[in-house]
């Protein structure tokens, strides 16, 4: 990648210990603000562990408070990479500087001085989707709206930039919610760039495992290849998580148990009875198609987005005509066997 080629991982020593004075490619300088290390230390109370709001293999994320031109402090998320996170830092800043979409988290700037590699993002006040699913506090309509937003973001990644971008680690923990409960994609440190848009997409082979095992696409498990259909498969599992209260349990059942345990029986109690049958049928059809064993049989994210919009309109229309807002689902939807066989 072009940032690595320019030595971003190994900046030359400088006498200014509090600033990002390293020279970066012009496009990065124009699109991405360089914060001083002193400002980021101040914003996080010298990286106080009590400010940590998330962590991963390569980094920790802090809640910080920055000031600009004497104005009131504004809240940001500050990701500080560890010694093993240099490549992830390079990849994420390269990708995020290219992205301009309301469903992708915004990068506000960075700091790179000696061993310090830090990225600064907009702060997402409502945290990650997985927390809200665990707390079982989201209505069915809001869950559906969040899924549509995520599909829109993935569609943009696959088709909206000069080169396709494959997220690769999509899951509820990588879907953040802003103060209006609108979703934004995060976690691009292991994402992969594909071919230029409108050119024929090629399979990309990777040498090491990435992502959570439960969200890995079948083709990656079989031959370690990546295409845009990896994200489609992962999104299908996100749809399953959104409606089921015990998804991890479902994915570890035997084949006989799967056939005897339709998804309808595992729907989160808070939304049970709130899903219109027509909406549900479209939703589960989308989920099943996303989870197809063969990548070429899965839909594009653009097609998924359109179908989920249709499901939402069906729900809204049903709610208008059904004053009781209480529905019964008569269908029996089981998880495709190929999904079970390849996530075990």
UniProtKB/TrEMBL annotation:
InterPro entries: ANXUR1/2-like, Kinase-like_dom_sf, Prot_kinase_dom, Protein_kinase_ATP_BS, Ser-Thr/Tyr_kinase_cat_dom. It comes from the Eukaryota. Transmembrane segments: none annotated. Residues 47-312 form the Protein kinase domain. GO terms for cellular component: plasma membrane; plasmodesma. Signal peptide: none annotated. ATP binds at residue 79. PANTHER family: OS07G0166700 PROTEIN, TYROSINE KINASE FAMILY PROTEIN. This is Interleukin-1 receptor-associated kinase 4. It comes from Vigna unguiculata (Cowpea). The lineage of its organism: Eukaryota, Viridiplantae, Streptophyta, Embryophyta, Tracheophyta.
């Amino acid at each position: 990648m072009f940032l690595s080629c320019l030595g971003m991982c190994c900046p030359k020593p400088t006498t200014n210990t509090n600033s990002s004075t390293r020279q970066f490619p012009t496009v990065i300088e124009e699109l991405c603000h360089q914060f001083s290390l002193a400002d980021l230390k101040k914003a996080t109370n010298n990286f106080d562990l009590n400010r940590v709001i998330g962590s991963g293999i390569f980094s920790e994320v802090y809640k910080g408070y920055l000031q600009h031109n004497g104005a009131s402090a504004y809240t940001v998320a500050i990701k500080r990479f560890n010694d093993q996170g240099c490549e992830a830092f390079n990849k994420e800043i390269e990708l995020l500087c290219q992205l301009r979409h309301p469903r992708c988290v915004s990068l506000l700037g960075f700091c790179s001085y000696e061993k310090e590699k830090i990225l600064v993002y907009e702060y997402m006040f409502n945290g990650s989707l997985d927390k809200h699913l665990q707390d079982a506090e989201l209505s069915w309509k809001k869950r559906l709206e969040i899924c549509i937003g995520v599909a829109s973001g993935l569609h943009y990644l696959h088709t909206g930039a000069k080169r396709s971008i494959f997220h690769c680690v999509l899951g509820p923990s990588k879907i953040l919610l802003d103060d209006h409960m609108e979703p934004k994609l995060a976690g691009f440190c292991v994402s992969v760039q594909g071919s230029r848009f409108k050119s024929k997409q090629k399979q990309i082979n990777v040498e090491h495992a990435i992502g959570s095992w439960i969200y890995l696409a079948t083709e990656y498990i079989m031959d370690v290849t990546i295409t845009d259909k990896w994200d489609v498969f992962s999104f299908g599992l996100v749809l399953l998580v959104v409606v089921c209260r015990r998804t991890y349990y479902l994915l570890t059942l035997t084949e006989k148990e799967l056939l005897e345990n339709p998804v309808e029986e595992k729907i989160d109690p808070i939304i049970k009875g709130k899903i219109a049958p027509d909406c549900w049928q479209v939703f589960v059809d989308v989920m099943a198609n996303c989870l197809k064993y063969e990548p070429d049989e899965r839909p594009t994210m653009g097609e998924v987005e359109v179908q989920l919009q249709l499901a939402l309109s069906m729900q809204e229309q049903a709610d208008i005509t059904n004053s009781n807002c209480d529905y019964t689902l008569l269908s029996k939807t089981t998880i495709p066997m190929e999904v079970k066989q390849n996530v075990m």
